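Deliverable D4.2, example record:
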Amino acid sequence: MSDSIIVTGITLTYLALVLWVGLRARTKNTGSSLEEYVAGGRHVGVVILFFILGAEIFSAFAFLGAPGWAYKHGAPALYILAYLSLVPIIIWIMGPRVRELGKQHGYLTQADMISHHYNSKSLGAFAGIISVVAFIPYLAIQIAGAGMLFQAATGGLVPFWLGSLIAFLVVAVYVYCSGLGGIGWTNLMQGVMMVGIAWFLGWVVTDNLFGGVGPMFEQIQLQMPEYLVMPGSTGVMGWGAFSTAILVSAFGGAMWPHLFMKFYTADSAYSLRKVSVFYPLFAYLLVPLLFVGFAGILTFADAPLAKPDEVLLKLVMEVLDLSPWVTGIMLSGALAAAMSTGANLAHTAATIAVRDILCISVLRNASEQTVVRAIQISVLVVSLLGYLFAIYSPASLVAVLLGAFGLILQLMPMVVGALFIPSLRKSSVVAGAALGGALTLLYQFILPSPFAFHPGFWGIALNLLVVTTLQLLISGKTHTVSPKA
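Output generated by the structure prediction step:
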């Protein structure tokens, strides 16, 4: 039996197991109750919530992009660990408040909260459209990652297009049938796989090639020390760029709509705070994967890789030449990262498309069961669109994602107003978001960002300035208008 057939067989068995777990999570109310299908009945406990929130962040990027950044740039890749250290603080502060308002008012999406607080369905629909547009390329990255993993690990036996299709057909089916329940239980299973496989890879790569992590870094320090200091080997990040990337990634990541939807699912505010305390345990997943990237610096010093994102695959498949049984399990763990995030994205994008856009237009008077069915169909449509983007992706796809965190960050004043500062006016936050978003795009795609800061930093700075100025003007007008006799 050839190695490729063994790897493919192990991977297909794993996918079948994921599908079985996802379908088993369906309850009798999943197909008829909107709250059950979208928010798990708002009774998701600590363990499942921990893995769901983990999968929100740890995607195909964890196994491909993060090692690739460490291999290509060196020390700048550590910004990922730095911004993840801020995520628990955000969950602790924001999560319970989001959950409280969601339960009180029946919110199921971020746009629900925005449209209700600012009394504007059109504003909610606008936020929904922006979210869906942002989610499609984000989902495409997960699909492309799955295809790349399949193709490399099976030696081309399963081509890119087919690997992508198989992995995300599995995701689409169990999300369609089981909603959040299927996502929760499969994320639990896949989360354990991801953490275990990541640490195994970090250990086996560094131990086999260098005799351990310490000796590896000692060799890098002696031979290629520029990889261990800022701004890295390529000069990609000075301290300004590094610091602003951390801030934009942390606070921008907190504004993603799929994070809000998972806050609504929690059974209590106490559960969310417990998750925030233990969340760094999941973030440790990236430590060994960064080690793998650093291992590639010396291994491929004489023949640099054309595609840095392939460093993990090249080390495992070509340098170490591991047993096909080990390779099959490794592929399954890496696929878990892509599929768990992809399931969350497909579910969220479909819910937003129906709840925030269609339900204020063509489905205005639809029954709850009809809305659930519309979301299920939208899961299939969104997954198909993501697949097509992955197969026929334009050259600008990566650039779009680079600007995504900076753009989504511009929602922060609007969201903070809805959560904590009710005095913020709709006109102020909309103007701030529009101008801040425009400046972010300007520095992302047209002009160089001043001081090489993350473009989103300048966008949110302008956003906050506009909001503050307009609030002061509105407040001044209010005080100068004399009361009617």
